[in-house]
Mito_carr domain-containing protein (Cephalotus follicularis), 300 residues
Amino acid sequence: MGEEKKAQPAGGVWPTIKPFVNGGASGMLATCVIQPIDMIKVRIQLGQGSAAQVTKNMLKEEGFGAFYKGLSAGLLRQATYTTARLGSFKILTNKAIEANDGKPLPLYQKALCGLTAGAIGASVGSPADLALIRMQADATLPAAQRRNYTNAFHALFRISADEGVLALWKGAGPTVVRAMALNMGMLASYDQSVEFFKDSLGFGEGATVLGASSVSGFFAAACSLPFDYVKTQIQKMQPDAEGKYPYTGSLDCAMKTLKAGGPLKFYTGFPVYCVRIAPHVMMTWIFLNQIQKYQKAIGL
């Protein structure tokens, strides 16, 4: 009995924080691999040409290190955003399964859990996301307009000092909406695909994780790119000589984009975005699966 009482506090703390620790770790590992593709995606959205042109120009003019510009912000973003969203999703789905008498959740409930987890994660990770976008876009600006942030923490400090603390959540509206769309596609489709590949098709663990993560990556990209496009435009905009910004907000940006380029304008850079989002989602799930297997092997 004494041993049981000793084990309870540790057992009570670790299961609570475990989904958050695992989510953040898997997201950060995936980001280290995907950062160069993410950099190219942002440059395409900023109108610097095709993937091949952007890659060639970056190598020629800025060197290989340019592909990892903003890595510190990317890692900080995963440490906040992915930690919060994957941890929240796990807790929300566990609670929902309990309420459902232990039965698998229907797709719409998984989607609702994904939407909620995305909103929570984006609210927490928005400052790091803003720093990442600005650091990635900095080299595309005229020299006089460059902010020259040295790392993510310098960016956060400068934004707070120059523009006020609330500026850290500039573009948070579209960031949250984009995260909700991405996580609805990513999280709900992954859980649903795992059930399909494992139970209906009888796939093994490795094939199930690979197949489900591929489906998850595609739906995450397809659901989120229009919101990502608007978010990027809002976060990187600069005032003109009269101090006027090109857009008054997300809706204004969306309407002007729709009027100027039609619906497909929101899918500018979709192949590269899909190539960036899908592997990141896939690797996040694969890393997460491996972390959980390792923890199980050592009794955590």
Notes: The two ends are 21 Å apart (CA to CA). The CA atoms of residues 132 and 175 lie 13 Å apart. Residues 1-10 have pLDDT under 50 and may be disordered. Residues 19-68+268-299 form one domain.
